[in-house]
Write a structure and sequence with these properties.
- With about 475 residues, the protein is an all-alpha fold.
- The protein is about 70% helix and about 0% strand.
- The chain has 17 helices and two strands.
- Strands 1-2 form a two-stranded antiparallel ribbon.
- Strand 1 and strand 2 form a beta hairpin.
- Helix 4 packs across helix 9, helix 6 packs across helix 7 and helix 15 crosses helix 16.
- The longest helix has about 45 residues.
């Protein structure tokens, strides 16, 4: 039973919220996705276009989310919003989907990249590299890396168990460090004598031109954008802390807008440096040569071995930061569900000393570790992108629903460019929902099944706890 004396505290100001938005977004994607996106589009300007479009679409989603978040700020983010926009059952499906696939898989995937990068820097003995395939998922591949990742999840969960301010302080320090390091990389790269601006106009050797608005080109552009969406994933996490934000009606929308714009700018400049320093043929080749991470090898070109080490360490910082931020924020969803009687009862517990959803944090940790051992990095990210955009679209659609259902309800923030901005975002989410199963059928099916498995649990908890 929830401790009546303990409660979540409104302790996060605007700067803390902006830091948490940035820390939840910036992970490994901006370092790892340059080569696969280049391989798909084979022209630097198109790669940059894919990053810009994916950033704008994410911004449209953040702006739409901000209107709803400003109206209904509470623990659980979209879970709290969907109860008011749609109904408790749909809200439960989101919360269960976050637990079963979306947020837990994100935590597992980012922690895996951290462990992979650490193992590349400090080569540890391979405990086991054989994998067992079952229904398209790979079990126990690279056991050393997964054990490192599991240890990280336990340590970070403990830090956030000990208090919101401690978890937020870790994110703040790491975020300022990574922004500073990214700016150093950008400035030194753009002013390096090793670069050539003509590289940005040179397509790959095997490039075959397609009309810009042809179906073939747009399909390739969409495929590349799916890669970059992993890098932008997490912009909505700040909404989960709605009950712990000071003046949330103001600070929640502002932090979403400012934080997302900062990330878009950093991502674009990082990719300009990649293509300025290295021809696209070399970037594509680095997917299978060198470190396997284009950013690491490109830093080695203009900064030497120290530069490659610098970026490798930066990837450690960013993945550590993103893992910590997602653990901190996502656990609030399950706390809110348990408080409503539609999740494991213990998850509603607030620690009497640390004022954190302590049990919810450990439940999240346990399931994330199970997901970590159940699938590869790419499988996890493909699964969560498909599942998450189902609900992102529902949030943007909620802007239209609430404008019609409750036109007089106070809106501290109104989405810029209504109805075009939320409308375009809804259409994109619909397109992603249709497109992904044809390209990643097993991952899409797994994500949907994990969400639907929650229905029997909902019926059980609803009956047991007499939920209306």
């Amino acid at each position: 039973m929830e401790n009546k004396k303990a409660a979540l505290q409104r302790s996060l100001g605007l700067l803390s919220c902006i830091v948490l938005v940035i820390s939840a977004i910036i992970g490994s994607g901006v370092f790892k996705k340059a080569a696969p996106m280049s391989e798909v589009l084979m022209k630097p300007t198109y790669v940059l276009l894919a990053w810009i479009l994916a950033g704008l679409i994410s911004l449209f989603g953040a702006l739409s989310n901000a209107e709803i978040g400003g109206m209904f700020a509470d623990s659980g983010g979209e879970y709290a919003y969907f109860k008011k926009i749609y109904n408790k059952f749909f809200a439960f499906l989101y919360g269960w989907g976050s637990f079963a696939a979306i947020r837990s898989a994100s935590i597992a995937a980012i922690a895996y990249v951290f462990a992979e990068s650490l193992n590349h820097l400090i080569r540890l003995p391979d405990i086991g590299t054989d994998s067992i395939s079952l229904f398209g998922l790979h079990f126990a591949a690279n056991l050393t890396v997964k054990l490192i990742a599991a240890t990280l999840l336990i340590v970070l969960t403990y830090i956030n168990y000990r208090g919101l301010r401690l978890g937020e302080a870790v994110s703040r320090g790491l975020t300022f460090t990574l922004i500073l390091c990214m700016l150093i990389f950008i400035v030194t790269g753009l002013f390096s004598s090793h670069g050539d601006w003509n590289n940005l106009n040179k397509p790959a050797t095997n490039y075959v031109a397609k009309p810009f608005f042809s179906g073939g080109f747009l399909a390739l552009l969409f495929t590349a954008m799916l890669q970059s969406f992993w890098a932008y994933e997490g912009w909505n996490n700040i909404g989960y802390l709605g009950a712990e934000i000071k003046n949330p009606q103001r600070n929640l929308p502002l932090s979403l807008l400012i934080g997302t714009l900062v990330v878009i700018t950093l991502y674009l400049l990082m990719n300009v440096v990649y293509h300025y320093i290295s021809p696209i043929d070399d970037i594509i080749a680095r997917r299978t040569t060198g470190s396997g991470i284009a950013a690491v090898d490109i830093a080695g070109i203009f900064l030497g071995k120290g530069g490659a080490l610098f970026i490798s360490c930066l990837i450690l910082v960013t993945t550590l930061n993103a893992t910590n931020a997602t653990i901190l924020m996502a656990a609030r969803i399950y706390y809110a569900m348990a408080r409503d009687g539609v999740f494991f009862k213990g998850a509603s517990t607030i620690h009497p000393q640390y004022n954190t959803p302590s049990t919810s944090l450990w439940i999240q940790c346990a399931w994330s570790i199970i997901l970590l051992f159940s699938g590869s990095f790419d499988q996890l990210t493909d699964m969560l992108i498909f599942a998450s955009f189902l609900f992102y679209g529902a949030t943007a659609l909620g802007v239209f629903v609430m404008r019609k259902k409750a036109p007089d309800l106070e809106r501290p923030y109104k989405v810029i460019g209504y109805p075009i901005v939320p409308g375009l975002f809804v259409l994109f989410c619909l397109g992603l929902f249709i497109y992904t199963p044809s390209q990643r059928p097993m991952e899409a099916l797994t994500g949907v099944l994990l969400i639907l498995i929650g229905i029997p649990f909902y019926m059980y908890w609803k009956k047991k706890n007499q939920v209306a």
